[in-house]
Amino acid sequence: MNYNMVGSLKGLKVTIVGGDKREVELFKYFVKAGALVNVIGFEKLALYFPRKSLSTIREGIQDADILIFSLTGIDDDGKVYAPYAEKEIILDMEKLFLIKKGALILSGYIPEHFKKELNELGIYFQETAPLNEISIQNAVPTAEGAILRAMEMTDITIHGSNVFVLGFGRCGLILSDKLRGLSAKVTVVARRDEILSYACALGYRTLKLESIHEKINEADIIFNTIPALVLTAELLCLLSKNTVIIDIASYPGGVDFAAAFRLGLKAELMPGIPGRIAPKSAGKILASIYPALIIKILKGKEL
User: Fold this and answer.
1) pLDDT band of 5, cuts 50, 70, 90
2) Domain locations along the chain
């Protein structure tokens, strides 16, 4: 393909590999834009797609100019987030070699060892979950879904409850705002003093992460947004059996879930919340950003 001629998606061969109902919306947009779109890993949602678009892994990967994986992405073992696939999708070296040189991969997350291999194979890639234009908008359905799940898991109201939000990045900030709107008593927990100062200036209670053991027993609900192990077995032992833990951090999360299970705690890792709670809205976010991003990257290849 002559990338100097790229100014639209028309004629591009796009394969969507795994994902959830967000990708249904994305599929519709790319088809409307004139792309030739295949999907892999949507057997349980086959009614949403024309039969001819349902592809095998080999066919879909080797023919694609663009490969799109979900915002949840690819884990360190190569497992692709594909809740509607009939069987697991694993991206291994054999499949990487099927991708043609010069193709572009968009994925929320890509393991570091994969990036090295992709560079050596001449395959372009872009991690999309860290992009501000996506993550900020995506934080809204994520926050709403996390709060909804907390309501389902607890027998108290959000109103008046003691809620700890671990991390105050893009998602933690919006989540805290939504919780305060429901009259929760929100404590922001973070490592950096400047982040805690900002949270304090916005009217939240604050707590240094290193001091969380002093107050964690007060939490009715804990939302974790930090993608590193922060809720260790030692900390979990301090919690009431009624405490609800919702982990919305990116892979691998920040909770020792094995310890939580042993202790009988109500804890849940929730990847891909927007795709479960508000797939139409979340899909439109991706459809509003991905086309321009793809065209920008493809044009840049020839600079």
Assistant:
1) very low
2) 3-130+278-300, 138-271
